UniProtKB/TrEMBL annotation:
<dbReference type="InterPro" id="IPR029064">
    <property type="entry name" value="Ribosomal_eL30-like_sf"/>
</dbReference>
<protein>
    <recommendedName>
        <fullName>YlxR domain-containing protein</fullName>
    </recommendedName>
</protein>
<feature type="domain" description="YlxR">
    <location>
        <begin position="18"/>
        <end position="93"/>
    </location>
</feature>
<dbReference type="Pfam" id="PF04296">
    <property type="entry name" value="YlxR"/>
</dbReference>
<dbReference type="InterPro" id="IPR037465">
    <property type="entry name" value="YlxR"/>
</dbReference>
<dbReference type="InterPro" id="IPR007393">
    <property type="entry name" value="YlxR_dom"/>
</dbReference>
<dbReference type="InterPro" id="IPR035931">
    <property type="entry name" value="YlxR-like_sf"/>
</dbReference>
């Protein structure tokens, strides 16, 4: 094992699980946030888990990121000085939101996503939906109808209608759904992480069982 943060250690290269530096929890690496330290000493979020360097792993929650920041845990894990922005949690939330919306956009362009309540109803009833989307700023009645419609399907309520709208080529989108497949699985994984940052009580990922 090497002490250099610029190279993977043995555990980093082989094990399917990683330890959160703040909580000590050991979880599959796909459920954790990964960071690396750049050549200039700056902390770089590696949400795609593809950047070279020794990974620093955190549970995907705003409070955990803020704890790591306050206790200077990134520098301890890297064994060197690390430059970390004070608004790291906000930056991660924005990156995760972008990754989720990109996945929805890819699904739409692949013909695997629709919007509009009636279209969503039709897809769900035909068994062609894996994930249901509901704008978190929609009316409570509308959100409850979508939850009921989804049944045992995953329901994502993490985005405002204005965030979902451009993905579907419109100003606002209140309801949507994604067909089964790799993009739906990718969206669920990204949304599960984003839920740890949009913790104001209006965002959720439900019914994933």
């Amino acid at each position: 094992m090497t002490d250099s943060p610029d190279h993977e250690d043995e555990d980093e290269m082989t094990g399917p699980e990683r330890r959160c530096i703040a909580t000590g929890a050991i979880r599959p690496k796909g459920e954790l946030l990964r960071f690396v330290v750049g050549p200039d000493g700056s902390l770089v979020p590696d949400l795609g888990h593809g950047l070279p360097g020794r990974g620093i792993w955190l549970s995907p929650r705003r409070d955990v990121v803020n704890t790591a920041l306050a206790k200077r845990l990134f520098a301890k894990a890297a064994r060197r000085q690390v430059s970390v922005p004070d608004d790291l949690a906000d930056r991660i939330e924005a990156l995760l939101a972008r990754r989720c919306l990109d996945a929805i956009g890819l699904a739409r362009r692949a013909g695997q996503a629709v919007t509009g309540f009636e279209k969503v109803c039709a897809e769900v009833r035909a068994g062609r939906a894996a994930v249901v989307l509901a704008a978190r700023d929609a009316s409570r009645d509308g959100r409850e109808k979508v939850r009921a419609l989804g049944g045992g399907l995953a329901v994502i309520e993490l985005f405002d209608g204005a965030e979902l709208g451009p993905v579907f080529g419109r100003d606002m989108a209140v309801h949507g759904c994604i067909s089964p497949g790799k993009l739906a699985l990718r969206l669920l994984a990204e949304a599960a992480m984003l839920a740890g940052f949009r913790d104001d009580g209006t965002g959720d990922v439900a019914g994933t069982g």
